[in-house]
Amino acid sequence: MQIKNDTFRRLGWSGILALVLAVLAACASPITAKVTSFNQWPADAVGAGFSFIRPVDALNDLEQQAYEGRVQAELERLGMKRVTPGQVGRIQVDIVTGNGTRNKQFREAIYRDNYVYHPPYRDGAGNVFGGFWAPDQFGSRYVGDRIINRTVQVSNLRLRLLDSQGGTPGKPRAVFESRAVYEGDNEDLATLVPYLVRAVFDGFPGQNGRVRTVKFDGKTGEMLKN
Questions:
Q1: HEC profile for 3-66?
Q2: Where in the chain are the domains?
Q3: What is the mean pLDDT of the chain?
């Protein structure tokens, strides 16, 4: 949409800023996940079979099964195979998701419109024009910050991979643990989990004890390079 110069003059700098912010708000924001991972991944796990550890109360949970499907796709991409239902794979997968809110403080910049007085003047024909106030051509002035409180959504996914060959009988050993956390505007957990799963498996198994940030384009779903 083309905006004429006279429109900008009527809006003033504060109006222009509000217009720009409105346009930016219409664009989907990136989805960001903070990921913390630990691993002692066995070198001979390539091609291993895997199964899911599912709580008794989640046996018929379609939502949980959908999340498992996302993890299964990532494990198969890494060369592993899901065992026949009812069997226990060498790698046992434990998935836990959570959703909540918390209060968070943000620092917000404050801008003040600055007006400049233009004194009366006479043109070449002798016509006199009265003085007037107009927005400063240099725009609004930064005058400081203020602290605001906002409730943000906190969604997380915890993934554990246990190796039944790496521990004592009946007690598989954890070989990969990762937690991905999203903090931001309200989003359905079902919408976020695919991103959190991809974030967990990004660069798998990765550096032990590393904390990293993974971002996705909110419109295309593509992973953004930091």
A1: CCHHHHHHHHHHHHHHHHHHHHHHCCCCEEEEEEEEECCCHHHCCCEEEEECCHHHCCCHHHHH
A2: 29-107+149-224, 111-146
A3: 84
Phi/psi at 111 (5° precision)? -120, 145
Each residue's pLDDT tens digit, 70-104:
999 999 999 999 999 889 999 999 999 999 988 88
Q: Does domain 29-107+149-224 have CATH number 3.40.630.30?
A: no
- DSSP string across 52-105: EE--GGGTT-HHHHHHHHHHHHHHHHTT-EEPPTTS--SEEEEEEEEEEEEEEE
Angle at 203 (CA atoms; ends 201, 204), nearest 5 degrees: 55
How far apart are alpha carbons 89 and 206 in whole angstroms?
Answer: 23
Amino acid letter at 96?
Answer: V
What is the distance between the alpha carbons of residues 28 and 99, in angstroms, rounded to a whole number? Answer: 21
Q: pLDDT tens, 163-212?
A: 998 777 778 999 999 999 999 988 899 999 999 999 999 999 999 999 99
Q: For residues 160 and 174, is the Cβ–Cβ distance under 8 A?
A: yes
CA 153 to chain centre: 11
Please, what sign has the CA dihedral across residues 178, 180, 181, 187? Answer: negative
